[in-house]
Amino acid sequence: MNITAIGIFSILSYLAATGFLIRETVTENTQKPSIYLGWLGASAHGAYTLVIIERQSGLNFGFFDTASLVSMLVALLILFATFDKPVEKLGIAVFPTAAILLGLDMIFPFKAQTSLRYNWPMSVHILTSIAAFSLLNVAALQAMLLAIQDRQLRSHQPKRLIRSLPPLQAMESLLFQMIGAGLFFLTISLVSGALFIDDLFAQHLVHKTVLSIVAWIIFSGLLLGRIRYGWRGQIAIRWTLAGFVLLLLAYFGSKLVLEIFLQKR
Question: Rounded to an integer, what distance in angstroms lies between the CA atom of residue 38 and that of residue 167?
Answer without folding.
Answer: 24
